[in-house]
Amino acid sequence: MSVKNAMTADFLRSAYGGESMAHMRYLIWGEEAENSNYPNIGRLFKAIAYSEHIHAKNHFNVLKEDLYDSSVVAGAVFGSTNLIDNLQGAINGELHEIKQMYPVYLETARYQEEKEAERTFHYALEAEKIHAKLFQDAQDSAKENKDINIGKVYICPVCGFTTLDENIEQCPICGVKKDKFQAF
Fold first, then answer.
1. SS3 content of the chain, % helix, strand, coil (to 5)
2. Which member of 38, 78, 175, 180 has the greatest number of CB atoms within 10 A?
3. 96 annotated among ligand-binding-site residues
C-alpha cells in the first residue's frame, strides 16, 4: 500500500504516533491501577492499550511501503498523578480523537480517495467512542472508591473494536468473528 497524498500521509503518521503513545500510557496506567487495588480498571487499561496498538499498527501498515525517516508530532497526556486523573487523561485523549482528530483525518482521506487510510481512520474512530465510555464508567466507579464491575474485555484484532459483551458473534465494525477476539 502506498499513500499518494502528503496530507493523508502526515495524518497517518500523526495518528500512528498518538496511538503508539496511548498504547504505552495505558499500559503504565494499567499497572498503576492494579498496584492501587483496582484490578479491573487495570485490566481495562491494558485491554484498551491492545486496541490502541492495533490502531497504530493499522496506520503503520498503510504507510508500510513509504519507508523513510520522519518526525512524528502527536499530542499526548504525560505524567501520572492518581487513578482519577489518569482516567480523565484517557477520557480527554479519546474525546479529542472522537471530536477533532479522526473526523478531520477521515474526511481528508475520503476527499483524497485514500481508501486504506479511510478504512483505518474509520476503525479507530469507532473504537475510540467505546473507549471514552468505558473510561468514563471506570472513573465514575473510582470516584466512589470502587473498582469497575466488569467481566472480560474483548478486543477485535483487526479494527480494535472493544466490548464487554460475551455473547457478541462478530465485530460490528469489520465483521471478524468473535472467536478471533483477544480476551482480557
1. 60, 5, 35
2. 38
3. no
CA–CA separation, 123 vs 56, rounded Å? 11
34 assigned binding-site residue: no
Q: Is 94 annotated as a binding residue?
A: yes
Domain boundaries, given as residue ranges, for the chain: 6-148
Is 113 one of the annotated binding-site residues?
no
In sequence order, what are the beta bridge partners of 163?
154
Between residues 78 and 51, the one the model is more confident about? 51
What phi-psi label fits residue 183: left (phi over 0), alpha (psi between -120 and 50 degrees) or beta?
A: beta
To the question of whether residue 169 is assigned a binding role by annotation, the answer is no
Q: How far apart are CA 173 and CA 43, in angstroms?
A: 23
- Does the annotation flag 114 for ligand binding? no
Q: Check residue 101 and give its pLDDT.
A: 95
Residue 2 confidence class, pLDDT cut points 50, 70, 90? confident
Write down the mean pLDDT value for the chain: 93
Is residue 159 a known part of a binding site?
Answer: yes
What's the whole-model pTM score?
0.93
* Cβ contact 162:155 at 8 Å: yes
Rounded to 5°, the CA angle 129-134-135 comes to 100
Q: Select 6-148's CATH number: 2.30.30.40, 3.40.630.10, 1.20.1260.10, 3.40.50.720.
A: 1.20.1260.10
